[in-house]
Design goal:
The chain is mainly α and about 400 residues long. It is built from 16 helices and no strands.
Length: about 400
């Protein structure tokens, strides 16, 4: 007889594992523009372009591979896919510290996107193994680990880069990702696939059979995740370029501080947002957060003071911290358990496309236009997100 899975124990272990993994990614990736300068990219236009390419290529490869990983997770288990993502990230990120030039870095980013993807795998594990009435809260808790890792990683990484150099922080990030797999292998258990229900037929057919409008509701939410990621992933490298235009020294430290403030604000929002959802609704809270995210990004574009830029970045992180878990929770509540890994795999593809398109768009606009114009376009995607949510998203039963 198979013992019951302790979803709270799983959540605690996954919280620590994701904290460590995202800490590893965030320990190094905010400093890609600075690393590119060290690799010989000195001209501002060239730096903006390479920043966009290196930032975006991982998203496109992840978008291609995520549905495949989702299918394998539904068939063979979510836990093994999470371990695979963490090990893939450890190897590729660690090797970035040995890059000889920008082309090496782009190739490794391409491989990293194809082999990693820890958030989607962990989200599917939590959504599948958590009682329905606790899914929103549990995914908010998981998102808080991602936000805390995103906050602490740049802060510590900026200090480490100042002492040990930029190459060392990529090697250190790979080590952290390798450590993150330990609690997954030792502690995490998942509901056996035969208990969840082996999926029969395509995910589209199952979603259609679940209830009227379920397929459309999930599709709208997946599009919204892509729009959110385009906006926020485009905003992040532009923030670094904005700071480079205002500071002649200490850019790594201030960048780390700005990303830390954003991550801590996201962590707070990821847990606290559920209280607002209970009083209002998922849709109304998400629409308000999208509008406020746009205003925060516009503030970074227009305000010349570095201190205010850091505060506006924290505000952007706060509203991103509401939107991320809110959209994931809505998908988890809409999608039947049997195909949740596949649905979250497609969701991860949308997020990854946004993760790729955002920096690429931002880098191109900054290279051939200006950083403030690029920030305005990033904010425009947040406005589009608010409109799509207001017009087409439906409130899930929870």
């Amino acid at each position: 007889m198979t013992p019951e899975v302790d979803w709270k124990r799983n959540l605690a272990a996954l919280w620590f594992a994701e904290l460590t993994a995202i800490f590893g990614f965030s320990f190094a990736f905010p400093f890609l523009p600075l690393f590119l300068k060290e690799l010989g990219v000195q001209q501002p236009q060239e730096l903006a372009l390479w920043t966009g390419v290196s930032g975006g290529v991982a998203g496109f490869s992840q978008a291609i591979m995520s549905p495949l990983w989702g299918v394998l997770a539904d068939r063979y288990g979510r836990r093994s896919m999470l371990a695979r993502a963490m090990i893939g990230g450890a190897l590729t990120v660690g090797l970035m510290g040995l890059a000889r030039g920008p082309v090496d870095l782009v190739i490794l980013r391409l491989l990293q996107g194809a082999t990693s993807g820890t958030v989607a795998a962990a989200t599917a594990l939590v959504a599948t193994g958590t009682p329905r009435n606790r899914v929103g809260w549990a995914l908010g808790v998981l998102s808080s680990s991602i936000a805390v890792g995103s906050a602490l990683g740049p802060l510590v990484g900026g200090l480490a880069a100042s002492v040990f150099g930029l190459r060392a922080i990529f090697v250190g990030a790979g080590v952290m990702l390798a450590i993150s797999v330990v609690p997954v292998l030792i502690v995490v258990r998942e509901t056996p696939i035969e208990k969840v229900g082996t999926p029969q037929g395509s995910a589209v057919a199952i979603l259609r059979a679940t209830g009227a409008g379920t397929l459309g509701a999930v599709a709208v939410l997946i599009v919204c995740q892509g729009l959110l990621q385009i906006s926020f992933s485009g905003f992040q490298p532009l923030l670094v370029l904005r700071l480079l235009g205002h500071l002649s020294s200490g850019v790594a430290s201030v960048t780390g501080l700005a990303f830390a403030a954003s991550g801590l604000a996201s962590a707070f929002a990821a847990v606290a947002y559920s209280a607002f959802v209970r009083r209002l609704s998922y849709v109304s809270v998400a629409v308000a957060a999208a509008v406020l995210l746009a205003l925060s990004e516009v503030a970074v574009a227009l305000v010349p003071d570095v201190g205010v830029i850091v505060l506006a970045t924290a505000a952007a992180g706060l509203f991103y911290g509401v939107l991320g878990p809110a959209l994931a929770s809505m998908i988890g509540l809409e999608a039947p358990v049997q195909v949740q890994a596949r649905v979250f795999g497609v969701s991860a593809s949308a997020i990854a496309i946004g993760f790729g398109a955002g920096p690429l768009m931002a880098g191109g606009l900054a290279a051939f236009g200006s950083v403030p114009i690029a920030l305005g376009v990033a904010a425009g995607f947040a406005v589009i997100l608010a409109a799509v949510l207001a017009l087409w998203a439906r409130e899930p039963v929870h």
